[in-house]
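The material for today's practical consists of a large collection of protein records. An example says more than a description, so a record of this kind follows:
***
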Amino acid sequence: MKNSIHVDLLGTETRYYQTPGFRTRVIEAGKGVPLILMHGGGGHAETYSRNIKPLAQVCRPMAIDFCWHGLSSKPPYRQGNWCRQFTEQVLELIDAVGADKAHLEGESLGGWICMDMAINFPDRVDKVILNTAWGMEMPGADTTDLDSLRETSVNALNNPTRELIRKRLDWLMPLGGVTDELVTLRLALWSEPQTRKALTEYYERLFSPQTDALLFKDAELAKIKAPTLLLWTEKNPFAGPDVAERLHRVIPNSQVHVMMGAAHWPQWEKPEEHDEVVIRFLES
């Protein structure tokens, strides 16, 4: 039986960093090079609650709430490349802790921001972990699961009940792993009016045809020079291990690890394996 989120986070610190453009909630521990842990769309810092203390053996893991998410600030959305606001939030956080560069891990949406950082701000990036990442073009991919993601997300935001929140989380972890505690936490966050409004607009923008132009093409991904771990899963919705192998062929200094028996939250579903693989990668 897994520990509760509260027990997993004993010994960590929750801090709020005020930077020029954002107020960012961070759960952190450890010392040394920061490892910015970035959740997926609709998520929050507790996505990595099972990993922060183990990873603190080798670095300074910092699990964040993205802007518009969790308890971080909800600035106005920008026209054009609104996704860049996430990147600017991470850059300002790295500045705020006095670091020149950081390791990055991003799950789903977080992987998109990792790629943006590695492509467009390479001098601020040490090593990169793309965890079941999204944000790149996937020619010929079946988008049926993405339609399901949109439906379950919007339904849960329009009417945040335990049943609909659990259905949304079950999309992430169809093999099991959704706990009552996690449902309670997500329900509390998604019931807050400002967060509901901000996330509703997030999903409207995310699934707008205009956002397709922001997806990274292979030629851009080939510019990533940072050592990159493609941390994928056997049952990742909408982008299976074949996508990780394709990215491996495109990103020069990359390696692949596929976790069996996991879906879209491998850091939560298989925390011991996740942490072992990430620590080995960071120390290599």
Notes: The chain has a mean pLDDT of 96. The longest strand covers residues 125-131.
